[in-house]
Amino acid sequence: MGDAAEEMTRAQLRRGLRVATLLVALVTVCGQGLSNILRHLDAYPSPLAQLAAFAVLAAVLAGEAVLLLRRRSWGRLRRAAVAVVLAASVLSYVTLPEGRTSTNTDWLFGAAAWVGLVVLLDRPLRVAVAFLLAHDLTALAHLLMVDPNRGDLARFATGSVTVIGLPLCVAVVATVLNSLSAASAASQREIERVRVAEAVAAESHRRRQQRLAELSATTIPLLEGLADGSLRPEDPAIQRRCAIEAGRMRRLFAETDTVANPLVHELRHCADVADRKGVVVELDARGHWPTPPVAVRRDLTEPVLSVLATAASRARIAVVGGADLVSVSVVADSGEVDLPDPVTPGVHVETLNNDDTIWMEVRWQPSPQPAS
Amino acid sequence: MAAEPAAGELITVVIVDDHAAIAAGVRSWCSQAVPPIELVDAGDRLADVWTGPGAAADVVIFDLELVPRRPDFGELRRLVDNGRRVIVYSQHTDDATAIKCVDLGALAYLTKREGPDHLVPAIRAAARGEPYTAPSLSGALIADDAPGRPRLSQRETEVLRAWFVASSKELVAAKLNITVKTVDTYIARVRVKYANVGRAARTKSELVGRALDDGLITLAELNETAT
Fold it and tell me: Complex ipTM above 0.85?
């Protein structure tokens, strides 16, 4: 709940900060910077170089404006943009009159810092700090070329506080905002993981309870009887019940498998129990049929389980199906078998005894589905 | 070649199968059959079916997949076109392959799961030029929904289906309250209908001609087209 809304809020905050930084940079470069260039145009040995540096900074800001409108980030262009800004800074200082560092003539001192920050706003704090230091050192190098007096140094120091300090504050805010949203995303993922794990646990618990409930009526009394000695394992009737229960449990486990043909899959599991007793079981299926619901599949496989439980040596299971009828047959040398009645409507059992061979057929007629 | 063997005359069979164990098993079943059947083992050499003792055999037991996963329908067609009576013995259980073999004129199609209970009667039927329908082929026929399949009556479908399911004609007869002979008649009628829509071959004309002569099926029933 509200995850999307939170994420949207964070995105809006980041965008707002980006817009604000761009506006500050625009005012610093195009307002203050340009007016200082024009006012001191005579003081520069090469006014064209200063104008070129200005054009470079203005172009980078224009690029940021375009990216902002398209909601994109600098990406692979970022390194080039930073290099261009630093190059403009070098160009401007090389053509700046000596001793004019950090005065109104040095228009770029404040301007380039903001332009660099615009490009580096969504990078880690140390990158922005490194850029600001590089920019400040360029200015210092220019100052130290001539022998500076104490006044010059003091002016540079106070200038630097503003030039580095203000953009740095903005960079810190941006970093905090970024780390907040990263932490929030991580905790969101963690919450999601815990929720999924909880849901899985609850579902498997429910399924186990259901299985236990299904086995409690038949399997558990048998196991209890065997445990307290009231049922004798050598009794053929008890052995038969054990074989049926083993088949039911195998069927129960197979019911949750995801397979293309659940009915045949479950029959194969039922047959496997008899197979292990040494009964030769054939399983053959023809045709295509709609997947019957679990309750119907149980009714269709139950007679097979009962017949297989007493089969002496051989059994044949055959499934024939179509859109309107599914029939499961089992033929085995089982003798007489008594059967539980089918639970679901639409399922019918027919039995034929011939000597010691039993042929049992279970038919299910799916209720007509609305044509799809 | 492939002349009608007189009653009581020894039936000879040639088997083409690259698995020695299959040939040995079939040889054992044939020698234990009453009366015994003589077997010529061609191994995986198709040439031995066409020359020597194999050429004179009444029935050919043909492994459809001498090359794995490449059923040799061409060779089956050549054998049938030369008037050989062919039983296809295959590890394939898919319906389309079974029906294709029948359409090409094989008298019987058996899967290798079907043992002497079906192979020996199939050999005797094929030696007489008659088809034999094993349960697996019955299953393929009831599941057949190709356009152009012959129209089967409700009773024919019922018998085929019961035969596929129970794999015992006595059980089918008991369940449907008919005699075993009637069960055979219904199954034979289905095969005649299939032979009639299949490709022209000597086995087909023999089959259809005799069915008409014996009154197993009428011309009108044969000419009912597929649904």
Answer: no
Who among A287, A327, A331 is closest to B167 (CB)?
A331
Which chain B residues are within 8 Å of A307, Cβ to Cβ?
none
**CA distance linking residue A50 with residue A34, whole number of Å:** 10
Domain enclosing residue A88, as ranges:
3-189
Please tell me whether residues A272 and A141 are part of one structural domain.
no
Which residue in B111, B137, B154, B165 has the most chain A C-beta atoms within 10 A of its own C-beta, making it the best mutation to test that interface?
B165
Q: Is residue B5 part of a domain?
A: no
Contact (CB<8Å) B143/A316? no
Shortest Cα–Cα distance, A249 to chain B (Å): 26
Residues A39, A169 within the same domain: yes
Q: How many CA atoms lie within 13 A of A99 on its CB side?
A: 7
Alpha helical stretches, state H, B105-201: 116-127, 135-143, 154-166, 169-176, 180-197
User: Which of the listed residues A151, A170, A189 is the one where a domain comes to its end?
Assistant: A189
Residue numbers of A between 293 and 322 with CB closer than 8 Å to B: 316, 318, 320
Element (H, E) at A363: strand A357-364
Identify the domain containing residue B82 by its residue range.
12-144+156-223
Alpha helices in A229-332 (DSSP H): 236-255, 262-276, 294-310
Instruction: Provide the whole-model pTM.
Output: 0.63
| Greatest distance between any 2 Cα atoms in chain A | 124
The verdict on a CB contact (< 8 Å) between A359 and B175 is yes
Q: Enumerate the residues of chain A whose CB falls inside 8 A of the CB of residue B93.
A: 284
- Tokens coding B221: 């029933």
Give Cα B86 to chain centroid, integer Å. 7
Do both A171 and A255 map to the same domain? no
What is the full per-residue pLDDT of chain A (372 aa) written as tens digits? 456 667 777 778 888 888 999 999 999 888 888 888 888 888 888 888 888 988 998 999 999 999 989 988 888 888 899 899 989 888 888 888 777 777 777 888 888 889 888 888 888 889 889 998 988 888 888 888 877 778 888 888 888 888 888 888 888 888 888 788 788 888 888 999 999 999 999 988 888 888 788 788 888 889 999 999 888 888 888 888 888 888 888 888 888 778 888 999 999 988 888 888 889 999 999 888 888 888 899 889 988 888 988 888 989 999 998 888 899 999 999 877 777 777 788 888 988 888 889 999 999 988 765 444
Compare all CA atoms of chain A with the CA of B139 and give the residue at the minimum distance.
A286
CA-nearest residue to B137 within chain A is A286
